[in-house]
Design a protein that fits this description.
- The structure holds 2 protein chains of 2 kinds.
- By secondary structure, chain A is of the alpha/beta class.
- Chain A has 10 helices and 12 strands.
- Chain A has a domain of 70 residues.
- In chain A, the strands form 2 sheets. Chain A has an 8-stranded mixed β-sheet with strand order 6-7-8-3-9-10-12-11, with helices on both faces. A 4-stranded antiparallel β-sheet of chain A has the order 2-1-4-5.
- In chain A, α3 crosses α4, α3 packs parallel to α5 and α4 packs across α5.
- The radius of gyration of chain A is 21 Å and the shape is globular.
- The longest helix of chain B is centred in the middle third of the chain and has 18 residues.
- Chain B is globular, with a radius of gyration of 21 Å.
- Classes of the chains: A alpha/beta, B alpha/beta.
- The interface between A and B is large, with 40 and 44 residues.
- Chain A: It comes from Brevibacillus parabrevis.
């Protein structure tokens, strides 16, 4: 459990933004992911939460090397994925797969389920034709579909079933790490519960490691062993789920948790309502990115960016006022 | 389905996608495309008038003026080639006899009301210059510009982050207090219902399965589908396997004889597959459509059903 499987060091991704004028040089950059470091342990689920635009999905793509980082490294299996050539990366991707957000858009409508699931096996030249067909049957069974589904097309399935097909495809190559980018967000609650149960069962049977990205705090809390909270490209707080949900230290995490709708009409919920929107990452506030919306901000927060420091146990927080918040 | 709504009250309509929540709301507004859609029978009474009998022209006067709607997706329901101001002023000028200047003034007031800073400047901007939460505020400003008596909010916060959702729900509540608007809140998120509604209607496959006050539904839910729905919500104390409702919602193109929920219902008996249960009042203000939930007979609720 404690062995680390992926190590991310000072990962940065800056997107250049063109000037207003047509031939203007790109002078500004969007710091979509700005100096993120953490490690993922074998067999655990690391949840990543944050509002839209905070860099969650960019981070997922960086780990997959679907986009290359500006700086930093992603160490997996002793090699730095960021330094691999595209060809070497293709091979490395066998052990790291992704399940995307939208079950309607991530399946090619002109391919049958069998063709969709077999595709990774073909690309990586795994097995003979018969073996592949057998594997597809196995996978369909694993995700709770039947082998007669294999000849059907994606449009014949509901959202939850399509997400099952996506999961089967991601598992085809026996990956070690699966990145779920908002994989259950588009589903209805009753179906969402089915898919989450499936993901948990699969994790237990195949010893999978998940990086689970979602904006839904309840889902992340339920599925994750550890959670990282992101705000404007940086990790502001990280820890086990008890540490985050019962002892949140960063003012942003607290506000985020208090914004979750209440669970019963009978309770009254104290709420920290944040004013304003997430600032533009093109022009982030100086110092601590959160200081403009933070009710506790001091002068120091405006000028100096806090570092992610250890609070206790595995709990890391990036706030100047750490320990001094009531 | 049937329900009624009093002034200043909020009713929630919950259900999964495809359960007919949005069709209900578009029917009220007379926006169901016809053909192929048709209101088979029934009436929609609004202040004593039957909306289904009104002509297109009469309906146009009510729509956007007395009854207005906030649509789900703020990214696509604003017109990208017109400024935000233009779109708010359009509604005001259409329904109220105001000149351009006064309408503009009213638009600025509305933007201020929904909490958009620098409204004079923002009026001249296009939707793409606004963030998701800001666009939803603009949608609310448009919907409220004519002080409607009834506001239909179709998943108003689904596309938004929780922090922005909290802001928008807060805003809607405040505006409701000020303007005494009645709200129909359509959502799949029970949390939003607990947050903002007094009454709630649970829909499944185009039918009302349960109708009660929010507290009643939370404490004493009766329909097996409502149980499943409540169970599959993840709460802060959820551990172990997540209870889920097995199977998928039915295909409404097929004729179904019995209860629409029967194939997924762990309590279903033969009767459920052959006869459709009526919606009956089993307790004061608590209606449920289930053969086995009547005023003198109750089902025993088992622990969450397993997937």
């Amino acid at each position: 459990m404690s062995e680390s499987i992926i190590q991310i060091n000072q990962l940065k991704k800056h997107f250049p933004v063109k000037d207003q004028s047509l031939f203007g040089k790109s002078s500004k950059v969007v710091k979509a992911v700005d100096d993120v470091s953490f490690e993922v342990k074998r067999g655990e689920t690391l949840g990543i939460v944050g509002e839209s635009g905070c860099g969650k999905s960019t981070l997922a793509r960086l780990i997959m090397q679907l986009i290359r980082p500006t700086e930093g490294s992603v160490i997996m299996g002793g090699q730095d994925l960021a330094k691999l050539s595209d060809k070497e990366m293709k091979r490395a991707r066998k052990s790291i797969q992704m399940i995307f957000q939208n079950p309607y858009a991530s399946l090619d409508p002109r391919k049958t389920v069998e063709q969709l699931i077999v595709e990774p096996l073909v690309i990586h030249q795994v097995g003979t034709h018969q073996e592949r067909v057998k594997r597809v049957k196995e996978l369909l069974e694993v995700v709770g579909l039947s082998d007669y589904h294999a000849t059907r097309y994606p449009h014949e399935f509901s959202g939850g079933q399509r997400q099952r097909i996506n999961i089967a495809r991601a598992l085809a190559l026996n990956p070690e790490v699966v990145i779920c980018d908002e994989s259950v967000s588009a589903l209805d609650v009753s179906i969402q519960a089915q898919v989450i149960n499936l993901l948990k069962d699969l994790q237990a049977s195949f010893n999978l490691t998940y990086i689970f990205i979602s904006h839904d705090l309840n889902v992340v809390r339920y599925i994750s062993d550890r959670i990282a909270v992101m705000y404007l490209g940086r990790v502001v707080e990280m820890g086990t789920y008890e540490e985050i949900y019962h002892n949140a230290q960063h003012p942003y995490t607290r506000a985020l948790l208090s914004a979750v709708p209440k669970e019963s009409p009978l309770i009254k919920k104290e709420r920290v309502i944040l004013t304003g929107d997430v600032p533009s990452p093109m022009n982030p506030p100086s110092g601590c990115h959160f200081h403009k919306r933070c009710p506790y901000a001091t002068d120091r927060c405006k000028t100096e960016a806090p570092a992610l420091t250890l609070y206790e146990g595995q709990h890391k927080v990036s706030c100047h006022l750490l320990g001094n918040l009531s | 389905m049937s329900f009624d709504l009093k002034q200043g009250e909020t009713i929630g309509i919950v259900g999964e996608s495809g359960s007919g929540k949005s069709v209900t709301s578009t029917a009220i507004l007379g926006l169901i495309p016809s053909p192929p859609g048709k209101i088979e029978r029934g009436s929609i009474l609004f202040e004593g008038k039957d909306l289904t009998k009104l002509s297109q022209a009469q309906m146009r006067k009510i729509r956007g003026n007395e009854i207005s709607m906030i649509f789900q997706d703020p990214m696509t329901s604003l017109n990208p080639v017109f400024t935000v101001g233009n779109q708010i002023i359009e509604v005001i000028r259409l329904h109220q006899q105001l000149d351009k200047k006064a309408a503009r003034q009213r638009a600025i007031e509305m933007l201020k009301l929904v909490g958009i800073p620098e409204p004079e400047k923002r009026l001249e901007q296009y939707p793409h210059e606004f963030s998701g939460g800001m666009r939803q505020r603009v949608m609310i400003a448009i919907a409220l510009a004519c002080n409607p008596k009834l506001l239909i909010a179709d998943e108003p916060t689904t596309a938004l982050d929780v922090t922005v959702q909290a802001q928008i729900l807060d805003l809607m509540k405040k505006l409701q207090d000020d303007l005494q608007t009645s709200i129909i809140m359509i959502t799949h998120d029970l949390g939003v219902v607990w947050e903002s509604c007094q009454k709630v209607l649970v829909m499944y496959a185009g039918n009302t399965v349960e109708y009660a006050t929010v507290e009643e539904l939370y404490e004493k839910p009766l329909h097996p589908y409502t149980w499943g729905l409540l169970d599959s919500q993840i709460k802060s104390d959820t551990t172990g396997k997540l209870p889920s409702i097995p199977g998928n919602p039915p295909d409404l193109r097929e004729d179904i004889a019995g209860c629409y929920f029967a194939p997924r219902c762990p309590y279903a008996k033969d009767k459920c597959f052959s006869e459709k249960p009526p919606l009956v009042e089993v307790a004061p203000n608590h209606l449920v459509a289930c053969h086995f939930q009547t005023s003198d007979h109750r089902l025993e609720r088992k622990g969450g059903s397993q997937a």
